[in-house]
TrEMBL record:
<dbReference type="InterPro" id="IPR032466">
    <property type="entry name" value="Metal_Hydrolase"/>
</dbReference>
<dbReference type="GO" id="GO:0004157">
    <property type="term" value="F:dihydropyrimidinase activity"/>
</dbReference>
<feature type="domain" description="Amidohydrolase-related">
    <location>
        <begin position="50"/>
        <end position="440"/>
    </location>
</feature>
<dbReference type="GO" id="GO:0005829">
    <property type="term" value="C:cytosol"/>
</dbReference>
<feature type="modified residue" description="N6-carboxylysine">
    <location>
        <position position="151"/>
    </location>
</feature>
<dbReference type="InterPro" id="IPR006680">
    <property type="entry name" value="Amidohydro-rel"/>
</dbReference>
<dbReference type="GO" id="GO:0046872">
    <property type="term" value="F:metal ion binding"/>
</dbReference>
<comment type="similarity">
    <text>Belongs to the metallo-dependent hydrolases superfamily. Hydantoinase/dihydropyrimidinase family.</text>
</comment>
<dbReference type="InterPro" id="IPR011059">
    <property type="entry name" value="Metal-dep_hydrolase_composite"/>
</dbReference>
<dbReference type="Pfam" id="PF01979">
    <property type="entry name" value="Amidohydro_1"/>
</dbReference>
<keyword id="KW-0378">Hydrolase</keyword>
<dbReference type="InterPro" id="IPR050378">
    <property type="entry name" value="Metallo-dep_Hydrolases_sf"/>
</dbReference>
<keyword id="KW-0479">Metal-binding</keyword>
<dbReference type="InterPro" id="IPR011778">
    <property type="entry name" value="Hydantoinase/dihydroPyrase"/>
</dbReference>
<protein>
    <submittedName>
        <fullName>Dihydropyrimidinase</fullName>
        <ecNumber>3.5.2.2</ecNumber>
    </submittedName>
</protein>
Length: 466
């Protein structure tokens, strides 16, 4: 059963070309000069559309237990929302809680996701307790389970936190088995002091979440992680949810030295701010409580992050999708910002929000595709199966309409959230058609996919290292 996508403009990191794309079954089999492909197959008209690889969101937290509750999207609702937004692969974070056997945490994550996903999925592993057993488990996960990246936390003492000795040992292990260390780089013990002092002064509102997590404590942790990775014989290091200029400068310095140090940012840091969102009147700002926090609009963070995307000091845009409803979940922190569950939901909007950068002249079309699809696939061992429109790759394809418009609202989104962090945002551009492994799952805003279509993707090692 073959289908020819005709008349579109195929975008890849290396160029933008008019090509017809032939799909057979679940795979892309050939690209043709316009009008020269087979005539006796089904056709999808992509005239006027960009034909891009399906988005790869390398940072999601479906059903994450956190802050006394759990993220409100299940693998079912979250991957369906991802599909609507042109994301056809997610890499979610399985969790080893402190004291838990790593493989048990992984098994629990498989149990949550199996049969529930609408698009393909893979896992990173959060290590909540680095000890001898966990270090041995890292080898097993890389060799047998298709998990080649491990997230550690310099933040959240008492929850996911690792101390520097634990971090160093995990980095040494990763250096030996080829895995990537992903780092939540904020100085948690110092933040906890600032949080207690703020609460003691009666500063309880959402904006104090941001004010007690100053940029310096992200920059310090980022720098420390980079130095620890150098001590671990240059273990590959990936800084997650980078939000601020000084942390970016630390990454840029390491990259200029030729190190395997990488970073992602997220749409919220490119667009939203401490003052306008976190500082919204009353308790409203709770909607935007996430860590790292939104940064001040009076400083150069957003400009610097867009520049970092152009220079590749920021390689990837992921969402850090971790939704909590306002009612009943964010409400847990009314009167004490430190109890507001941390996270923002954006899995449905990443492709659109970054296309806005193209529309605004901040990013090239090629760089858009690279940061939302190709590099995440390469970084995390999914390439060339994902992230590229080429013969042999999975037929994960999005037809994107540059003449369309998207208005984001809780009234129209598909995420399981009672509000939108992006309410009222207007995007020049629109997801038109989404194809996952050869099946049209979204077309003209209508859903044709099904729960269980998405498969687990065992990953190889990163193919992005220098
Ligand atoms: O606020 C956030 N980022 N919530 C998700 C957990 C994490 O640290 O990534
Ligand atoms: Zn629930
Ligand atoms: Zn984190
Ligand atoms: Zn996260």
């Amino acid at each position: 059963m073959a289908t020819l996508i005709t008349g579109g403009t195929v975008v890849s990191p290396t160029g933008t070309h008019r090509n017809d794309v032939l799909i057979d079954g679940e795979k892309i089999v050939a690209l043709f000069a316009p009008g020269t492909g087979p005539q006796d197959v089904a056709a999808i008209d992509a005239t006027g559309k960009y034909v891009i690889p399906g988005g790869v969101d390398a940072h999601t937290h479906m059903e994450l237990p956190f802050g006394g509750t759990h993220a409100s999207d299940t693998f079912d609702t979250g991957t369906r929302a991802a599909a609507f937004g042109g994301t056809t692969t997610i890499v979610d974070f399985a969790v080893q809680r402190t004291g838990e056997v790593v493989q048990d945490g992984l098994a629990a994550w498989h149990a949550k996701a199996a049969g529930e996903c609408h698009v393909d999925y893979a896992f990173h592993m959060i290590l909540g307790g680095v000890d001898d057993d966990a270090l041995k488990a890292m080898d097993v996960l890389v060799a047998d389970e298709g998990i080649s990246s491990f997230k550690l936390f310099m933040a959240y003492p008492g929850v996911f936190y690792s101390d520097d000795g634990q971090i160093l040992r995990a980095m040494q292990k990763a250096r030996d088995n080829g895995a990537m260390i992903m780092m939540h780089a904020e100085n948690g013990p110092a933040i906890d002091v600032l949080v207690q002092q703020a609460l003691a002064r009666g500063e309880t509102g959402p904006i104090h979440h941001g004010l007690t997590r100053p940029e310096a404590l992200e920059a310090e942790a980022t720098h420390r992680a980079i130095m620890l990775a150098s001590v671990a014989a240059d273990c590959p290091l990936y800084i997650v949810h980078l939000s601020a200029s000084k942390a970016l400068a630390a990454v840029a310095e390491a990259r200029d030295a030729g190190r395997n140090v990488f970073a992602e940012t997220c749409p919220q840091y490119l667009y939203l701010t401490l003052e306008d969102q976190l500082g919204a009147p009353g308790f409203e700002g709770a909607k935007w409580v996430c860590s790292t926090p939104l940064r001040s609009k009076h400083e150069s963070h957003r400009t610097d992050l867009w520049r970092g995307l152009r220079t590749n000091d920021l390689a990837i845009v992921s969402t850090d999708h971790c939704p909590f409803c306002f009612k009943d979940q964010k409400e847990l922190g009314r009167g004490d910002f430190s109890r507001i569950p941390n996270g923002i939901g954006s899995v449905e909007h990443r492709v659109d929000l970054l296309y806005q950068g193209v529309a605004d002249g901040k990013l090239s079309l090629e760089r858009w595709v690279e940061t939302i699809a190709t590099t995440p696939a390469r970084m995390f061992g999914l390439y060339p199966r994902k992230g590229v429109i080429a013969p042999g790759s999975d037929a994960d394809i999005v037809l994107y309409d540059p003449a369309g418009r998207t208005r984001i609202s809780v009234e129209t989104h598909h995420m399981n959230m009672d509000h939108s962090a992006w309410e009222g945002y207007e995007i020049a551009g629109k997801v038109d058609t989404v194809i996952s492994r050869g099946t049209v799952i979204v077309s003209g805003g209508t859903y044709h996919g099904r729960k269980g279509h998405g498969r687990y993707l065992p990953r190889g090692l990163s193919t992005y290292l220098v």
